[in-house]
């Protein structure tokens, strides 16, 4: 870990040093395109053969049975059930508070405009399970989907080697009221939800994070008329630390995202040389103790450790990178929040570990990665609804804007448009 340490790099180098690790895009797209073509043509049998190829397991029945759900519930320890329940309550509170009342505006006398939300009817939730069973992601997706009132919610998650699904995933899905759980992962799950197969129904929008294959498949799904929440790929965190930061905490926060996958990336920016050096040492110490240290070490190799002169510069660099998660381990972090322009979710101060937001603070952990925090928000209640605009004009309202509409329609050469107004104006 020496060629990814940068002490006071020149500003002209910032963009190059912040490049993210990625698979060859063209290969990835071709692979996913082939999977889509097969699943569209051959439905369940294609999904089955891709599960055999990529998950090394042969699945005859994708839908999880009630018996499997009951068995799973018996296998989850009580204290874990209570923890999931606590997280569920906080996530429910925060997402319920995102509900917006209807706000009718009179743009001119006699003209009212407003928006009303309608739930997206058919939604598909992808729950990652390749290297870790991310049951917490179910809370992040199913809770807002239920609050929004989505009618048909299906869930896909990769099967384990023995063909079962991790019990905590089944327990959490059941707790959130999800009835259709399918043992399908990867791009083949996204393709199945895009086209529909004999056993998996087509959805209107696909949600959820995943590895590069899942993310590329979600991006492709959009070509077939299916919406997606966002490209939420390999996890990232950027930590900014000044002299008030605690090296052990910084190292732990960085490793908490590095352990997600070998393609995860973490960025550490310190403005204090002692904290910088101590954190680098501490990463080595903590890495040794992690069960997933092989994964985390590879991600650390993809990562960047940067020493800069000021917190202001650190924030500028962070805005350029647009991290999924940003931790401000600095004095008075609230003084800097206005300067943050690109980030998925921000954690303030030494006692706000990103891991707390991953599970239980109440915020959503499905967030834009790979620089998409520049133009996407994380999942929220809004992600599960469409907003329909309404307008209501009285006679007086139409008289107030009629002439303007006629003039504009005429100028665009659209006389039927003009006529739709003129006929009414004449009738008054
Ligand atoms: N951005 C976010 O909000 C967020 C949240 C949670 C997790 N994540 C990320 O989600 C990812 C989870 O990844 P994961 O792999 O553990 O689980 P996953 O469920 O995303 O992917 C596993 C699936 O990938 C498919 N696959 C594996 N190798 C393949 C290959 N060579 N070709 C084609 N398909 C293949 C398999 O079908 C497998 O079922 C991690 O990268 C993590 O960082 C992101
Ligand atoms: N950090 C992930 C989002 O990038 C979410 C997660 C789930 N479980 C643990 N972490
Ligand atoms: Zn995490």
Automatic annotation (TrEMBL):
Cofactor note: Binds 1 zinc ion per subunit.
Cofactor: Zn(2+)
Catalyzed chemical reaction(s): L-histidinol + 2 NAD(+) + H2O = L-histidine + 2 NADH + 3 H(+)
Ranges annotated as spanning the membrane: none
UniProt GO cellular component terms: cytosol
Protein name as annotated: Histidinol dehydrogenase
GO BP annotations listed: L-histidine biosynthetic process
Active site residues per record: 324 (proton acceptor), 325 (proton acceptor)
Organism: Halpernia humi
Superkingdom field: Bacteria
InterPro entries: Ald_DH/histidinol_DH, Histidinol_DH_CS, Histidinol_DH_monofunct, Hstdl_DH
Upper taxonomic lineage: Bacteria, Pseudomonadati, Bacteroidota, Flavobacteriia, Flavobacteriales
Molecular function GO labels: histidinol dehydrogenase activity; NAD binding; zinc ion binding
Functional summary from the UniProt entry: Catalyzes the sequential NAD-dependent oxidations of L-histidinol to L-histidinaldehyde and then to L-histidine.
Binding of Zn(2+), residues: 257, 260, 358, 417
Binding site for NAD(+): 126, 188, 211
Recorded family membership: Belongs to the histidinol dehydrogenase family.
This protein's record includes keyword Oxidoreductase: yes
UniProt-annotated binding residues for substrate: 235, 257, 260, 325, 358, 412, 417
E.C. number(s) listed in UniProt: 1.1.1.23
Pathway(s): Amino-acid biosynthesis; L-histidine biosynthesis; L-histidine from 5-phospho-alpha-D-ribose 1-diphosphate: step 9/9
Alphabetically ordered keywords of this record: Amino-acid biosynthesis, Histidine biosynthesis, Metal-binding, NAD, Oxidoreductase, Zinc
């Amino acid at each position: 870990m020496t060629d990814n340490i940068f002490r006071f790099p020149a500003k002209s180098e910032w963009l190059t040093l912040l490049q993210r690790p990625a698979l060859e895009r063209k290969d990835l797209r071709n692979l996913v395109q082939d999977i889509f073509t097969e699943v569209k043509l051959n439905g369940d049998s294609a999904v089955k053969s891709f599960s055999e190829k990529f998950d090394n397991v042969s699945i005859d029945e994708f839908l999880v049975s009630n018996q499997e759900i009951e068995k799973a519930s018996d296998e989850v320890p009580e204290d874990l059930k209570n923890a999931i329940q606590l997280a569920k309550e906080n996530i429910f509170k925060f997402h319920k508070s995102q509900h917006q009342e209807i706000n009718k505006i009179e743009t001119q006398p006699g003209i009212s405009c407003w928006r009303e939300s309608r739930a997206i009817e058919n939604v598909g939730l992808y729950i990652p399970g390749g290297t870790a069973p991310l049951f917490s992601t179910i809370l992040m997706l199913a809770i807002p989907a239920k609050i929004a009132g989505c009618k048909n919610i299906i869930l896909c998650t990769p099967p384990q080697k023995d063909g079962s699904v991790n019990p905590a995933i089944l327990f959490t899905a059941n707790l959130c009221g999800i009835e259709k759980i399918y043992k399908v992962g990867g791009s083949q799950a996204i393709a199945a939800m895009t086209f529909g197969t004999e056993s998996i129904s087509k959805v209107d929008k696909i949600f959820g994070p995943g590895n590069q294959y899942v993310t590329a498949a979600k991006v492709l799904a959009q070509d077939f008329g299916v919406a997606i929440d966002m490209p939420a790929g390999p996890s990232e965190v950027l930590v900014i630390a000044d002299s008030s930061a605690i090296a052990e905490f910084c190292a732990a926060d960085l490793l908490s995202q590095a352990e997600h996958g070998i393609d995860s990336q973490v960025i550490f920016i310190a403005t204090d040389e002692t904290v910088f050096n101590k954190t680098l040492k501490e990463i080595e110490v903590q890495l040794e103790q992690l069960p997933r240290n092989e994964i985390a070490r590879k991600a650390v190799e993809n990562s960047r450790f940067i020493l800069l002169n000021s917190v202001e510069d650190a924030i500028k660099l962070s805005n350029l990178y647009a991290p999924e998660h940003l931790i401000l381990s600095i004095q008075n972090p609230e003084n800097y929040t206005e300067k943050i322009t690109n980030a998925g979710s921000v954690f303030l101060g030494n006692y706000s570990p990103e891991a707390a937001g991953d599970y239980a603070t109440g915020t959503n952990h499905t967030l834009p990665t790979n620089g998409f925090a520049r133009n996407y928000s994380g999942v929220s209640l809004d992600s599960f609804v469409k907003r329909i605009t309404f307008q209501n004009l009285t006679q007086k309202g139409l008289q107030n804007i009629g002439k303007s509409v006629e003039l504009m329609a005429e100028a665009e050469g659209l006389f039927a448009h003009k006529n739709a107004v003129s006929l009414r104006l004449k009738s008054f």
